[in-house]
TrEMBL record:
InterPro entries, per database record: Aldolase_TIM, Indole-3-glycerol_P_synth, Indole-3-glycerol_P_synth_dom, Indole-3-GlycerolPSynthase_CS, RibuloseP-bd_barrel
Gene it is expressed from: trpC
Enzyme class: lyase
Ranges where the Indole-3-glycerol phosphate synthase domain occurs: 15-245
PANTHER family per record: INDOLE-3-GLYCEROL-PHOSPHATE SYNTHASE (PTHR22854:SF2), TRYPTOPHAN BIOSYNTHESIS PROTEIN (PTHR22854)
Stated name of the protein: indole-3-glycerol-phosphate synthase
GO biological process: L-tryptophan biosynthetic process
Catalytic activity of the protein: 1-(2-carboxyphenylamino)-1-deoxy-D-ribulose 5-phosphate + H(+) = (1S,2R)-1-C-(indol-3-yl)glycerol 3-phosphate + CO2 + H2O
Organism: Agromyces mariniharenae
Length: 256
C-alpha cells in the first residue's frame, strides 16, 4: 500500500510538472517569504502540543468529512489552540490538494505541514511554493540516499522535515540524518492496524535533542494522556478533529 501511494503521488506530481516545469516551481519556492521556524513553535513545553490535520478521507476509513473550506477549518484549529496545521495534499485517497495547502497558508499564522507521499525534489519544491513550513518524510518509503537528499533540500529551503518512523531500525536511520522533529506513526501504513503502544516502546530510542511526535489514533483526551505519559511532546491528530467539534476537542486534548 505505501509503495502504491508513493508511486501514485509521484506520478501525479509528474503530471503537474508537464504544465509547471521544475525551474518555475523552484523560482516560486525561492520567492516565498521565509518559512516559520517549526522547531521553535513545537519545542517541548509543560503542555502537550497538537498538530491538527485537514483530512477529508483515507484509505483505512474512507470518507471522513466534506471540508468544503479548509481555510475555515484551519482557522478553527488555530482558535482552538493547535500549534501547527497538517494538510494532506494527496488527491486520490485523501481528497487533498496543494490548493488546500495554499488556502490554509493564507488563512493562519501557524506553521503548515505538507503531509503527502514525498519521494522527489520536485514535490519538496511544490511544498515550499505553496507556502509549507514543514514537509513529511516517511522513512519506510525512502532509501537512505533519497531520504538524505530530500531532508537536505527541505532544510536548505528553510523548512523543517517531520521524519516519520515505525520501528527501531527506522528511528536509527532517522537519527543518522540529524533530524530534530521525529514522529512515530501508530498506523501501520500497509495493514492500517493501529498500535498506540508503539510510540512508548520506541520513546527511549529518540535522539536526546529530538522533538517527539506521536502520530495517529488519538480519538479522545485519554489517548493524548497515554501518548503524553509515554513522552510525546506533540500529537498529530486527524480523524477526531474532522469528525467531531474541532475547537471543543482541541481544548480537551490541550487540557491533558
Ligand atoms: O489514515 C490512513 O488511512 C492512512 C493510510 C495510509 C497511509 C497514511 C494514512 N494516514 C496518514 C496519517 O498518518 C494520518 O492522517 C495522521 O497521522 C492522523 O491520523 P488520525 O488521527 O488517526 O486520523
Amino acid at each position: 500500500m505505501l509503495s502504491e501511494l508513493t508511486a501514485n503521488a509521484v506520478a501525479d506530481s509528474l503530471s503537474r510538472r508537464e504544465t509547471r516545469p521544475f525551474a518555475e516551481v523552484e523560482r516560486a519556492a525561492l520567492e516565498r517569504p521565509a518559512a516559520i521556524d517549526a522547531l521553535e513553535v513545537l519545542k517541548p513545553s509543560e503542555r502537550v502540543k497538537v498538530i491538527a490535520e485537514i483530512k477529508r478521507s483515507s484509505p483505512s476509513r474512507g470518507a471522513l468529512a466534506q471540508i468544503a473550506d479548509p481555510a475555515a477549518l484551519a482557522r478553527s484549529y488555530e482558535l482552538g489552540g493547535a500549534s501547527a496545521i497538517s494538510v494532506l495534499t494527496e488527491g486520490r485517497r485523501f481528497g487533498g490538494s496543494l490548493a488546500d495547502l495554499e488556502a490554509v497558508r493564507a488563512a493562519v499564522a501557524l506553521p503548515v505541514l505538507r503531509k503527502d507521499f514525498i519521494a522527489t525534489p520536485y514535490q519538496v519544491l511544490e511544498a515550499r511554493a505553496a507556502g509549507a513550513d514543514l514537509v513529511l518524510l516517511i522513512v519506510a518509503a525512502l532509501d537512505d540516499a533519497t531520504l538524505r537528499e530530500l531532508f537536505d533540500l527541505i532544510v536548505e529551503l528553510g523548512m523543517t522535515p517531520l521524519v516519520e518512523t515505525h520501528s527501531a531500525e527506522e528511528l536509527d536511520r532517522t537519527a543518522a540524518l540529524g533530524a530534530r522533529l521525529i514522529g512515530v506513526n501508530a498506523r501501520d501504513l500497509s495493514t492500517f492496524e493501529l498500535d498506540r503502544d508503539l510510540f512508548g516502546r520506541l520513546a527511549d530510542r529518540f535522539p536526546a535533542d529530538a522533538i517527539k511526535v506521536a502520530e495517529s489514533a488519538v480519538l479522545s483526551a485519554a489517548d493524548v494522556a497515554h501518548y503524553r505519559a509515554a513522552g510525546a511532546d506533540v500529537v498529530l491528530v486527524g480523524e477526531a478533529l474532522v469528525t467531531g467539534d474541532p475547537i471543543e476537542n482541541l481544548r480537551a486534548f490541550l487540557a491533558v
